[in-house]
Amino acid sequence: MKLWLPFLMAGVLSLQAAERARDLGVPLDGTPGEWNAITDVGGVEVGYQTLVSGEGNGAIRTGVTAVWPRGKEAGAPVFGGWFSLNGNGEMTGTTWLEESGLLSGPVMITNTHSVGTVRDAFIKWQVARAQKVGTGTNDWSLPMVAETWDGFLNDINGFHISDADTVAALERAKSGPFAEGNVGGGTGMVCYGFKGGTGTSSRRFGSYTVGVLVQCNCGRRAQLRIAGVPVGQEIQDSIPYAKNGAFRDEDVGSIIIVIATDAPLLPQQLKRLARRASLGLARTGSISGNGSGDLFIAFSTANPQAGTAKGLVNLTMLPNDEMNATFEATVEATEEAIINAMLGAETMKGFEGHTVISLPHDRLKQVLKRYGR
Question: Whole-model pTM above 0.85?
Fold first, then answer.
């Protein structure tokens, strides 16, 4: 078992050293991209700010994640669509996304009680950048900020996320491989009764790529299935209990899923793509219970003129009849991203001494072998 130590991490991206699903031989479908990450979609950048310090009632185990569709310097809107599988959660900016089909900035993810802070901090950062380069300020902004609840391990009512933390996640975003598990907004999350957090995966199909990033905080232990095997039922020890109900008995928590693709899809098609994340989530055992906020967003980096304000715009699109490969890639990458989030996470002790163990790699391999997987 990995050791837990209290620390404060600045949140820069780092190479993922921990074993991932494919490193352990988990049989998964599809062909991943170079980094098996959402950043395999050209232009996409991911940044973190991770906060881990203190113990007991003052334990801070939280952070911010930022996903830039075209990179932090480009700023051009992308076509997007979103879907709520179960709405016990928050994702700001979705009303205008639904109306316009455009995503004009990053997707940011944090804890439930820091959504407003992160939203406002992004607007301030955006205005300050515009003023610095002498372009004035935007008339308005509706940032996209989503959340999952980390109050079992984090002093969530201590409101520890600051404007500076949001700025750090935004500005440190970059392409390439990045860490998973206890990082960014996923720092204090619990998934299927094991330590959860941030995970990613990608799939290539034809000349296109789909990449997925998840912040997983959903499900209960007995539900967990990996490669079709009831892993959660086989590993039943050290199940955590939460203040608002036992993780053993209630489907609590949430999951945010961000889907990126370079396939030329229009907003309605991207909404269809976002729906398919539900099937990847279901493969890991979730029933999307009443207490779960399961919110998904998809965007396409194709059509660079998507946000053009005047005149006629020439667009390309993949025909609906050719979208099956895109659907399949999304389902597969979502499933693997959730598994990678759990495998990348480390055992964590946090708020009021609560401890959540990581999914033990050796026992996972034993269980899969016993089921012939």
Answer: yes
